[in-house]
């Protein structure tokens, strides 16, 4: 009976996961299908999942008429420096909150977490006025410089991961003569690769998919990010959905490749974070 119950439980779990996977893949399948349709057949009913005829020319049009490559380069320029530098600064702060003892540590950590409770729409106008006053509009500075100082969410997750690392390793390193910064560089960072990879993926995806920030601060077409380039296919009265979907499929490729190569670190970093309160 136990074997039958175990098999039934596994079959139920697999069936549930398969059904969930199908529902999650449907939007992507519809996006890819739409990217291969003629403009007049996008909203036909019933839905034709296999287009007839298949219009690969939509991808050719997107690649030749839209500056996708330039938008991709602009996006990478904007997100990569804040991702790496911000990850380092967040890790430094997380290490201090997790392992170092100093007056007001818990109060400062609670104050840091409090900033996560403030909605972005509340600070949007004051931040815009600030950047306008210092002359940062129509530049990449508002999208890059704040990220160099890390984020509260990243500090929180890395702190939780650092707390899972045994303190005996830190004590042994101190006996060998390492100062706190040496412990951080030689002990904490090598042991926290999964957590750093997970937070790096979150940071990359957040910047890569950001539409509102570039829309607010960037006006010059040559500075457009990939998301603004894709949005240029949508007008006030007419939207070319086939080209939008074709561009979206192409824009999805870098994120899929990134997750494919970093999947092991990503899953390990998420599962290990928060095991120790």
From TrEMBL:
List the top taxonomic levels of the source.
Answer: Bacteria, Bacillati, Bacillota, Bacilli, Bacillales
Q: Which Pfam families match?
A: BPD_transp_1 (PF00528)
What's the name of the protein? Answer: Sugar ABC transporter ATP-binding protein
In which organism is this protein found?
Answer: Paenibacillus agaridevorans
Q: Which InterPro entries match?
A: MetI-like, MetI-like_sf
Give the GO cellular component terms, alphabetically.
plasma membrane
Q: Alphabetically list the UniProt keywords.
A: ATP-binding, Cell membrane, Membrane, Nucleotide-binding, Transmembrane, Transmembrane helix, Transport
The family this protein is said to belong to:
Belongs to the binding-protein-dependent transport system permease family.
**CDD domains xrefs:** TM_PBP2
Q: How does it sit in the membrane?
A: Multi-pass membrane protein
Q: Where are the transmembrane segments?
A: 12-32, 72-95, 107-131, 143-162, 238-262
Mention one GO biological process in which this protein takes part, according to its record: transmembrane transport
